[in-house]
Amino acid sequence: MAMRKTYDAAKETRIKELKKLLGETSTTLENKYFLTTKIIEEYEKYSFDSTLYYIEKNIATAKAINNIYLEKESILKLAKLLVQSGRYKESIDALNELNRKKLPEKLRNKYYYNYKEGYSGLSFYTSVQKSKKNYSSLYQAYQDSLMQRLGPNSDESLALKEKNLRDQRKINDALQTNSKRLSQVKLGTPLYSLITFERALLYDLNNHRDQQKKYLILSAISDIQSSVKDNASLTELAMVFFKEGDIDRAHKYIDFSVEDAELYNSRLRYINISNKLSVISKAYEARSIEQKEELKKMLLFISVLVLFLLITIFYIYKQIKKLSAARKSLKNANNQLKDLNEQLSFSNEDLNRLYNELSDSDRIKEQYIGTFLNLYSDYINKLDTYRKMVRTYIVSNRTNSLLELTKSKQVIENELNLFYENFDKSFLHIYPNFVEELNKLLHEDKQIVLKKGESLNTELRIFALIRLGITNSSKISKILRYSVNTIYNYRVKVKNSAINRDEFENMVKKIS
């Protein structure tokens, strides 16, 4: 049902293409007739008014090309359309215009079929017994004539056989005949819809409700897929669900059927639907009124419960207020005691923190004082050694060798390496986890990896000095004997690898 517009759009597209071909100036009258026939086939179960329009157009075309066969064929299509839409008298009138003896052999089956259906409808709907008897007699005569002409395995022949068996209440035999018909058609065609609908009628007579619903559903699905608007299956299905008490589904299906009937504009279908629609609509409205009454009762009950709840909440609030007043004095006493305890706790924490800071400060001072004194002593010894060596060179008149010695940077490099080694040992003695803690502040793929034998490298020494409070790049450059630009570049490179670039150096200063 949700896909109805999609199936209808496909049909409208096919019709549009046919009309486009029909409107071409190069199309001959004969081709126009056959294109119009295709349009009639598309409209036949889709729109009564459009089908009627194009059948009458084909009659005019057949007369224009003076083709008697095509003219009679179109008149038979008109009679079929009229009889299917419940216009039985008009259908008979159209058939009466034809001379059976002059009718081509190929068209006689349709001729007898339309008479049969026309008199069947008149017999069923007339209330005058004399007319009913006359129409029934004519219906039987045309049916017999048709049966004699049909092949035993044609669908028309099997359909007549099935109807006779159904009228005689030979349901099992009728089902077998229907199964044979059903095996020759596919889902999504008008003939499949008709055969499954007639099968549902058989199960209705046999009181097999599940099977009746199954084949009504299959018929309705096929009707929707093939855009059949002149349908009955969904209307019957609505009545089945109505009898089972499923008013919502029944109302939904009958509304759907009414929409289809309005689009097709079938007088007969309107009559069939209107009686069922009124019954279902009344039940639906009655159920809606009943639900509204139930809803009113529930709202009243809920209102009473809400009132009771409000009274209960007010009583509980009063009790809580009294209890709150009783606890207030105790709470004040507890708060005073808590404040005293917190003050004492804060005092103890401050003392412990100050003690730890003093201990760390003393430890660092002791470490650095010891290191400084050792270095100072070493440099005094080195200066004394250097003084004696210079004196020896001068006394021995080896000034040229002394000059060459002063030109060499080896002494400076050796001293610088020794300085780095002493700095690394001293710093890592105070901050043994510095390298690991600093790497935690960097992205995993950007962490600093030391070479074999290294304690610290240049990047780590720069941030070691920052940890010691020396943050000025020019001061760091003097200590480590690098240019200011080199120190700046190292700092930027490491900061760019940090997880939190903006807070990186502040976090380095906090490494313990």
From TrEMBL:
Keywords for this protein: Coiled coil, Membrane, Transmembrane, Transmembrane helix
InterPro entries on file: DUF6377 (IPR045957)
Membrane-spanning residues: 298-317
Coiled coil (UniProt feature): 320-357
Pfam families per record: DUF6377
Annotated DUF6377 domain residues: 223-477
Highest rank taxon of the organism: Bacteria
Protein name: Transcriptional regulator
Originating organism: Pseudotamlana carrageenivorans
